[in-house]
Structure formats: structure tokens, C-alpha cells
Amino acid sequence: MKVSKFFMLVLMMSVIVGSGISSISAKGNETSIKGSLVIAGGSLGTSNVEVYEQFIDLAGGDKDAKIGIVPAASGSLKSSIQFKEDLISYGVEKSSIEILQLSSHDFSGTDQNERKWKSNAQKNKMVNKIKGLSGIWFVGGDQLKITDTLLKKNGKKTKALEAIWSIYEDGAVLGGTSAGAAIMSNVMITGGDSLGGFRHEFTSEDVSSSDKEYAPVYIEKGLGFFQWGIVDQHFNERSRLGRLAAAALEFETQGNYAYGIDEDTAMVVHNKKETIDIIGRSTVAVIDPAEAERKGKEIVNLDISYLSPGDQIDAKNKIFHISKDKFPTVGYEYFNFDPLPATGVLTSYGTLPNYLSYSLVDNEAATEVKSYLYDSKGEGFQLNFEQKEETEGFWGYQDGQKDSYSLVHVKMDVEPILVHFEENNQVFNNYHPSTFTVPELSFNPETKGSLVMAGGALGSSNEEVYEAFITRAGEDATFGIIPAASSSLKSSNAFKEDLMQYGVDEESIDILPLSNHDFSGTKENESDWLKNRNNEKLAEKIKEYDGIWFVGGDQTDITASLLNEDGTKSKVLESLWSIYEKGAVLGGTSAGAAIMSDVMIAGGGSHDTLAKGFTDTYDGMSQQEGGASYLEQGLGFFPHGIIDQHFDNKARLGRLIATSSAHADEGEFSYGIDEDTALIFDNQTGVMEVAGRAGVSVVDLSEAANPKHAPSLYEDIQLSWITSGDTLNLNTKTFTISDHKVSTKDYEYFDYEAAPHSGVLTPHSTLANFLSYSLLDNYREDELKSYSFHEGKGFEITFKKGENTEGFWGYQDGNKDDYSFLHVNLNIQPIEVYIVEEN
């Protein structure tokens, strides 16, 4: 919780951060364009209301919009049909939407040969059709197929493109996602990755680089609708900062920025106002190459910023306007910890904007951080990120209580290095084994209740999770909210409002007076509520509820509020057990999920736990960002394994493995729940189900080796990852994958050499996505590696396909990739690390 910042609201009427450059003179800006652009970074979800509504409004509104969809980039008509259906669901008349017959290639799944549609780009019939439109949308796929369709061989505009430009200049909105975003700028990035970009390798041919672990940057001519710089897409998910930086440094940008748009996020460009609005669910990177220099393979003084929804850019004057709902972090940093370098899948906040937000700009203890990017030979780069005098960070909430950061003017330097690894089982010789004693807790096998355990950062819009909780409470249910984990009542009030938004009557929801500490922002001293844990009147009232929710914060405050000092159950906790056994649903997010198992992980980081082991001391919330793991007694509502949360964002695989090795029962799985995701367990069926926007990692140590002489060494761990709609039957230990997904085994979509996961610029940088795209759905790879190291010591983490390994893929929420995988083999090997700077 960030309660300490709320008082700053009165100081924040508007935040303007200047770049010191007053104007730009981009080619084409002298042309008066009345139209607008909606440029989406890819994987646009059907549920992304803001992006769809902006596009429709700019096209004239749902009643007057006339929209054409250009299918040229795709391999089929599926995405165009899907987008048409999405527009209809948002109120546009079916008769007002047309899929334009523009393509240079044949589509799969149709009877006709759409290659013949290429000639339509020169036909007056198509021109007249386009001129009657108020909006055009380019679907995703291959951007070269769009330009091949709309540009002549000599690079000049076809009649269809001339018509698109005509309506755009007169006021129409043009939009596109993925490839449909890439074509928007004059300089069109068509291929390549960050490693290829930092190597300063470019290509002018459409060639595959699958035999290498990197791809050179491939540039072609775009359609130039976006007048304010270079655009790239799928930016954070595919870690494309290196390739965009290379393009910005190599090609004349005429003083403009370069923009990298994340998935499910969009830039709305208002040409008449000369502004760019950020909308959607993630961030837009803004690269300023004006003061940067390239010295061989070294890059110095590159300026990078990340803007989030609600922010706006004055494109002409290059000024950032940060949403007034966000608060400055400078001088009010929430965190105070020594961040480890971002070196692989065990790094907390492993994507670049998250890493810089939490570890640098909102962290009082750090003024610089670093990460790495290299191939399997160790040839690569060290990335240094540093706060400058003009660096600023801004924090707020979005979609309920999900952190939303913006950060501006972080300095980035890139230097070539060679990394070498050597196995050494004794490199960590001060490992402290756990001294925690697992409590003897009895569990009634006749328990009828259910659990909804959310991994943290639960969005108010996550209907699937809220409905799961409300439905299991039953009709006309009453709910109690336990605020004990938090430092204020804000999260409890927000959850109450969320329940009301989903149809629960206000009179049916109570915030229960249970806490061991005072809250900010109230007159009452809530530390007095500690005595309520044995208040008979409150204990009786608890028995009336059908659902109980534990909000997030510090899990030790929940257990301290409900367990007696000797570890026995308080009267209130006895009542919670009583309604749970009779059929009530218990739920919680973040800390509210951590308390569910017998063994409660209260603090520690993955790298530090594997290296140092466990500690018997706890110094509060800051310990959750790193250090040896600290364990306490949980409440035991889920007796079938150990639960961890914030799993993807805080990279907690290492600490869950070490804790499970020390304390899990034989044959028992352990579970890491991602943010905005819930693991749902119904005691009567013994079945677990996943709901929400990410997934749940399932760790199986039943066949694993962890020798006492080398406590940091692990072999033969089995790792699975299941997502929305997937289930696990604990009675039979069998997984069932949602039937909307198909197996990738022997039908892998990708075929390329994948570099190790080495830090924040590794493509698909979260653990589950890295394995899904680069291993499970990649024909070329049977094994992947990641490294985690600090001060010359670390780990080599190896992920292998085995006989029972299987991946699954489908679409969700429109055309967003949805993966699951089962039984990936995982080994952890201690190593020594040597880094040499290259000239």
C-alpha cells in the first residue's frame, strides 16, 4: 500500500515535465492533418473498452461511424472478422463495417484466392468505397504485406492509399494493432530484436535469422501516417528497446522521439492538437536519441521514459503531461532496498518498466541499476540505468489497486561484455537451513467450503475472479472483509465498492474490526482491534457470513490478528473455520492468499533464498523485496501445499522451490499465483481451477534431488503453468487443459534459436511467457537457460523438455495468445560468474 502518498493530492493539480527542447520540425508536419490515429501495440483485448471506444468516437460515434477493416497483414480473415464482431459489440451497426478486399496474398480457410485483391488497390471502386469511410483499421500480422498491398513497386502510393490519405487529412481516424501499428511511421521496423540492435546489425532483406540467437534490425518504408517519429509494437512483451534505440540512432529522426507501444495499449494521436494520449492497460516507451552517442558497440546517454494510461505528450514541443492522478516519487520513495541486478527469471519486477519503477525511481536506496543481454556464448552487453537530475517518477493506481507508474528521463548506457560461467556446487557456503517448525494442524476432510486465492494486484475489471467469489457465496449472501493486512481502510473500502459493482447490496457487506496495528487516515486507533480476535460477539457475527475476504498488505499482520500469542486459534478464527467447514467461501489477495497454507512465506527473494537460505528475523514489508526467506505459521485453510503470490511480477520461483524442499509434505505440489489471477479450490470436489488474466505455476518436487552437501543445487524439478479455465484434480493429480487450447507438441509454431534469459531485455521476459514462446511452442529448442548472479556468484537455471512435457495454445479475450504447459524439467546449478568488458 502507498498510503503515505495520498496527502500529496492537494499538491498535484498538474504535472508537466519538460525535455528542454521547445520544438521539432518533422517531415510532413507542415501539412494540416485533421484526422487522428489510434496505434495499438498488439494483442488488443476485446475487453479493452477505452481503446475501442476512442476509435469509435473518433470515427463519428457508434451511430455514425463508417469503418473499413484492412485484412492485408494477416494470414486469414479471422482477425478481421473478430475485430468486426468487437465493433458490433461496442454498438457500431453491422452494416457500417466492411472488410475491405485489400491483400497481396491468399488467405487460409477461404475458397477464393485473395491474392487477386492486390489489383483492387488501383481500382476506382475501392477508392470510392474508402472515401465514404470515417475510420480504417489495419489488423495485425506481417507489416510488409500491408505495404506490399498499398504501395507500388516503385514505392509510390496506390490509388487506395491516396484515398486513405485523403480521408485522414479531412478528419477520419486510422487505427491498427501490431503490424497495423508498425506501418504508421515513415521508418517501419519490420524485424530484429534488441540483441541485434545493440550489435548494430541491420539488414535490408526479408531473411530469416532462425539459425542465430539474435536477429538484425530490418527497416522498410512505412506509410507515414504518424508524423512524430518512429513507432514499434509488442514492445515490453518482446523487449524491443534495443532494436528501437538502434533504429532511432541509425535513421534521421529530425529531432523526434521514438515510441514503443506495449500490448493491449494504444497511443491516440490528435494531429490538430499535436498531442498523443496514452490509453489501455500498460505503457509506452519514449526514446530520445538527441544527446546519445554510439561509440562502436557502446551507447552512452540514451534518454528513456515510460508513460502509462492517463498521460499525454505534447508532440510538437516534446513535453510530457503526467496524469494528475499520479504522485511524484522523488523525495517520497515508497521502497528502500538494495536491488539486485536484473539477470534472469529470478529477478523481481523482471520487465524493464517494472524494474525501473520499483527498483530505481520509487526506491530511496538506489540511484542506478543494471541488467544484461547476451547469447549462449556469453557475448553481449551490460545495460546501465541511472537517475539524472531531470529523472522523475510518478505513481498511482489503475483498475482498482494495481500500481501504475510513469517515469521520465532515465539515462541508459550500453557497453559490450563477455560473460563466462563455471559450475561450483560450493560457491554458497553460508546457506542457513530453515528452523521453522510446521504446526500440527488438523483439517476436517468433510469441509464443504471453497477458497479464492488471488495473487495480488487484482483489477476491479477482473470479472472472472469476482464472479467466482460471489457465486460460491450463494444467493443473497453476506460478506465480511478483513482489513488486518493493510495500513489503511482504503483497500477494504475499494473491495466493498467492487462487490457492489458486481451486484452485491451494500447492506450485505461489512468491514470487520480486526487488526493488530493502527491505520492511517482514521481517527480511531485500530491497534485496539487486536482484542477483538477473542470477542465473543464478533465471533458469533462471523458465523452469519457466507463469504470472507482478506485484503492485501503484510500477511504477518493477518496471522497476528487472528492467532493467539501461543499460536492457537482465536475465537474469531474458530468461527471462520466453522463457516468454512459448513460451506462458506474464503478469499484473499496478495497477503490474503499467502495466509491460506500451513507454511506461510512472509518474506525473501528468489536469488537470496537459494543462495542464503532462511532467516528467523523479519523487519517488515521491505523484506519482501529480497533477502533470505522468512516463514511463519499460516492459517491452514488450504492444507494441500504451500502458496506464494505476486509470483510473476516478483519472480518468486526460487523461494517457493527452497521453501517446498524444506517443508512440503511428500508428494505435495506447491503453487505460485500470478497477479490479477486466482487459484480457486473447492473442497467437495478436490478440484482447483484458475481464473483471471495470467496463470498459476505448479511446482512438483516429488522426483527432485536437493543434496544436503549442496543445498543450492536442485535437479529434476517438474514445473507446470496453468491459466484461466485449466484445472488440477488433487485427488488424482491430473491436469485438465481448457478445451479452447490445442497442444503445441509436434505442432510448434516457432522455429528459432533462443538466447538465454539474461535480464529485462530478454524477449517474453516473464518466466511463463519465456518458456511458452521459446521452449514449448518452439520446434528448434529442447532446452533453455537463464542465469541469476550477483558479485560473481549465482545460478544457472536449465529448463528442458521431457517425455511428458507438453505445451498448449489458444486465444483469449479477442486475439491474445493464451498458453499453458505441463511438466517442464528444471535444474538449478550454482556457478561462479566472470564478466569481462570488451573494447
TrEMBL record:
Assigned keywords, A-Z: Hydrolase, Protease, Serine protease, Signal
Catalytic activity: [L-4-(L-arginin-2-N-yl)aspartate](n) + H2O = [L-4-(L-arginin-2-N-yl)aspartate](n-1) + L-4-(L-arginin-2-N-yl)aspartate
GO aspect biological process, one term: proteolysis
Tagged with keyword Hydrolase: yes
Top-rank taxon, per record: Bacteria
Annotated SUPFAM superfamilies: Class I glutamine amidotransferase-like
Similarity section: Belongs to the peptidase S51 family.
NCBIfam families: cyanophycinase
Protein name (record): Cyanophycinase
